[in-house]
Amino acid sequence: MSPKFYDTARVERAVLAQVVLTRDDPAEASDSLAELARLADTAGLEVAGQLTQNREHPDGGTLLGSGKVDELRVVLEQTQSNTVIFDNPLNAIQAYQLGKALRGIRVLDRTEVILEIFARRARSAEAKIQVELAKTQFLLSRIPETEAQQRFGGGGTGLRGPGESHLHIRNAPLRRRITDLKRKLEAIRKRQADKSRVHRQWPVVSLVGYTNAGKSTLLNAFTRADAYVDDRLFATLDTKTRMAWLSPTRQVLLTDTVGFIRNLPHNLVACFKSTLQMAVDSDLLLLVVDATSPRLADHIAVCKKTLKEIGAEQVPHLLVLNKCDEGRASHSVLHATEAYPQAVPVSARSGYGLDVLKQAMIEELQRCCTLWRLPSAISEI
Q1: pTM score, whole prediction
Q2: Environment class of residue 115 by beta-carbon count within 10 Å: exposed (0-12), middle (13-18) or buried (19+)?
Q3: How far is CA 213 from the centre of its chain?
Q4: At the fourth CATH level, which superfamily is domain 12-113?
Q5: Shortest CA distance to 124 belongs to which of 18, 232, 282, 278?
Q6: Consecutive sets of 10 residues in the chain, 381 residues long: mean pLDDT of each?
Q7: Do residues 216 and 298 touch, judged by C-beta distance below 8 A?
Q8: 8 with 120: CB under 8 angstroms?
Q9: In angstroms, how far is CA 146 from the centroid of its own chain?
Q10: I need a surface site. Which of 28, 278, 305, 380 has the fewest CB within 10 A?
Q11: How far is CA 51 from the centre of its chain?
């Protein structure tokens, strides 16, 4: 049975909490908290307040420290909230101590909210397996280890053997489920690897980038794929591939992939590796970012870091600045195009710049794609 984090049948009121360490960038911390509010909204929670604390080091027991926990309890009461979401990751002890101190209050962190969103958005069997694996691994990591749980029992008929702790026996069903899910994902990975060995007629171009940057809208603009589009984070998780014509004689397979985000849980990236393998095996990546975002540079850095983590950093890519028709953010767009002159400014919604992008894709694929250098491909031009 997959773990359930909270009741999704009703809207919950939540307070956001964040610890900003002295080594952290205050502007980045503020943007991260604003992003957490959007994540909470996507997960179906109503944000009723927030609390931030500046510390040199996080408190080992409650992250915030006892005084700030009391203040948090007051904020929760004043806003009539029943959930608190931490922007910082919580370890098993911190989650346990906070739950104990805030009795009756559901304690979540950024990772749990992202996992819940992924669980809601997953449609394909593969995506559902990947999400369940990540959630089960997370649940296992949240079970605190105590001295009492680690006492070893002796052997004997019908008894635990040497080296089997109470904790190990209690967690055995979770570990068996994790093994089973990994086995299923490995089978999917092998099937995909077999498919990738089949001769391809067309180059593969993958849309990657920061979540909510407009990748699905760009796929629709290129191919009329009717992909689901929503102005929320992680609107789509499952990959979708369609044929796209770059010119009357040039066509590619264009694939939409899951979006990236700062502090994306490592185990979630690992679980979605088979889905993200599409990016690794692509001939070209379109790295799509929102040109109107005030944290554009950070978003690009997050995308490149994630690509490196999945082994796709060597795949040729074009930087695409989307939403460049936003009149209300013309100053941001101008700054983005000046800061990244090699990027291609487009608007997936209005169609601005798409012809320029198509030509850039043709030129890049002619340079790097072996498939387009084949005599059979050249003779068709």
Answers
A1: 0.77
A2: buried
A3: 13
A4: GTPase HflX, N-terminal domain (3.40.50.11060)
A5: 278
A6: 44 91 90 92 92 93 92 95 95 92 92 88 82 90 60 39 52 90 87 62 90 90 71 67 90 88 78 76 94 91 90 93 74 85 93 95 89 48 37
A7: no
A8: yes
A9: 32
A10: 380
A11: 24
By the 10 Å C-beta count (0-12 exposed, 13-18 middle, 19+ buried), 30 is classed as middle
Maximal CA-CA distance, the chain: 77
Domain boundaries in the chain?
12-113, 122-143+167-198, 201-372
Element (H, E) at 333: helix 330-339
Kindly report the CATH number that applies to the domain delimited by 201-372. Answer: 3.40.50.300
Strands 250-256 and 240-247: antiparallel
Phi first, then psi: what are they for 58, rounded to 5°? -70, 145
DSSP string, 122-148: --SHHHHHHHHHHHHHHHHHTS---TT
